[in-house]
Every structure is written in C-alpha cells, then in structure tokens.
Specification:
Elements lengths: L2 H4 L12 H34 L2 H28 L5 H47 L10 H7 L2 E6 L2 E6 L2 E6 L1
Antiparallel strand pairs: 1-2, 2-3
Helix pairs in contact: 2-4, 3-4
Length: 176
C-alpha cells in the first residue's frame, strides 16, 4: 500500500515531500557519489594505462639492441683471432656464448610478439573502457527518471526529518 495509490485517506501520517526538494536531494546524492568515484576513476585509468603500456615493445627493443651489440662483439672477436690476439679455442668459446645469448633473445622476442598479437584485441577493449571512463561526468545538474533508477536502488524515508538515498553500499543521508 502506498500513499501515491491511496492518498492521505489510508496514510494520514506519512510525510509529504515536495518534488523540487526530492529532485535536489537526489541530484546532490548523485554528485556526492560521483565525487567519491573521481578518485576511483583516476586509479582505474592508471591501472588501465599500465596494462596498455607497451613494456613488451620496450623489452623487444632492448633485446634487439643487445643482439646488435653481440653481433659487434662477434666481429671484434673474429678480428682479434685474425690478428692473432686470441686462439681459435677462445674464439669458439666466445662465439658459442654469443650464439646462446642471441638464441635466447630471439626466442624472447618471438614470445613477446605472439603475446602482443593476442593482447592487441584486449587493448582495443581497454582503450574503449578508458575513453568511457574519461568521458564520465564529474557533476550532474539534472537527472532523468531513468538515470535515477539506474543510479540508485532505493530512497528511504527514515523519519519526517531524515531521508536516505541508496545505491548498493553507498548511502547518502538527507536531513529534511
């Protein structure tokens, strides 16, 4: 049974709330909730940016630079052998070490590239979420009925002096 359906005849002692006050209180509650969410929004954006960061590309570039250094070392080692500065055995040992490291770096780069291709679609989804979060309003000046229903679970009239506007665990208390 509600006062809206039966008027004051059945609910004689229920308080009346002016619509302007109710709209103002709900708007105030929405803005309070959004203000609380701004901090969470920045944390979420930071986490998404970190996930979207191209650490794999940086690591691949480092590996490629290291392989170039190793190629230069190969050339220097060969020159030292030809100049008689190191023996064939020393050269073979150095070549073997370089070859093993280059193989490991190539395998790492191949694994990074496969992972990057797989994550590419996920990054597009994250970019869309990031954009949506970035476009979220930081203040509401007018709420439509559908927005109120989406934003809040319930409005409780606690007493003639107090009203609560609730959304999950979030409770905004209004003194009337």
């Amino acid at each position: 049974m509600s006062r809206l359906e039966h008027g004051t005849k059945k609910c004689k002692h229920s308080p009346s709330i002016k619509e302007e006050f109710l709209i103002s209180a709900v708007t105030e509650a929405a803005n309070s909730m959004i203000t609380d969410m701004v901090y969470a929004k920045e944390i979420l954006k930071g986490a998404i940016a970190e996930v979207m960061g191209d650490n794999m590309q940086n690591k691949m570039n480092e590996n490629t630079a290291r392989m170039n250094e190793l190629n230069e070392r190969l050339s220097q080692t060969l020159t030292k052998n030809l100049d008689g500065e190191i023996s064939i055995e020393e050269m073979d040992k150095i070549f073997s070490e370089i070859r093993d490291e280059q193989l490991r770096l190539r395998q790492e780069n191949d694994a990074y590239e496969r992972r990057r291709q797989i994550e590419s679609a996920d990054h597009e989804k994250l970019k869309t979420i990031f954009k949506t979060i970035d476009e979220m309003p930081e203040e509401i000046d007018r709420l439509e009925d559908d927005s109120i229903r989406m934003l809040f679970d319930r409005i409780e009239i606690v007493s003639k002096n107090e009203m609560r506007i609730c959304s999950g665990d979030y409770v905004y208390t209004v003194n009337m």
